[in-house]
Write the structure tokens for this entry.
Amino acid sequence: RLARQVGQTTNWASSWREALFQLLGDIPPVHRSSISSISIDGTSSTTLIIDRNNGELLAGPFLYNESFPDALPMVSSIAPANHTVCSGSSTLCKLVSWWNKNCSNGSNDSAILMHQSDWLLWLLHGEYGVCDYNNTLKSTRSSHWPNQRRCALTIWLFE
């Protein structure tokens, strides 16, 4: 039951976790041993920032339609013109905005950004760094971040 009334808030992360385990629990026991993999389809650009030490939610979730225009100047300075990350609702804008508000006094070594589907799968396998290829923000041709973005982002994030 995800319907909300005006003014009512929803704890999205808890509702996603609850729905995942409810669905898994609904699988008839006779079929469970034949399941070898699970795929989760999440909403693109819906992200969470968690503490890699304990899995606790540090921020978010930031929903796909939430915009963070405060991050656009920095993101636009390192991204190619008209790139998809130059939208206030991009994952990169969400990360940059959070970083500016929470890590201005230095880095936060325990923070890790995860997309919705990656976080839900993490709840099942517990391994950080496992990510849907489409969520990595890397070049689809080279499987790497373009040099100008990697350098600019690294310098900016870890100054």
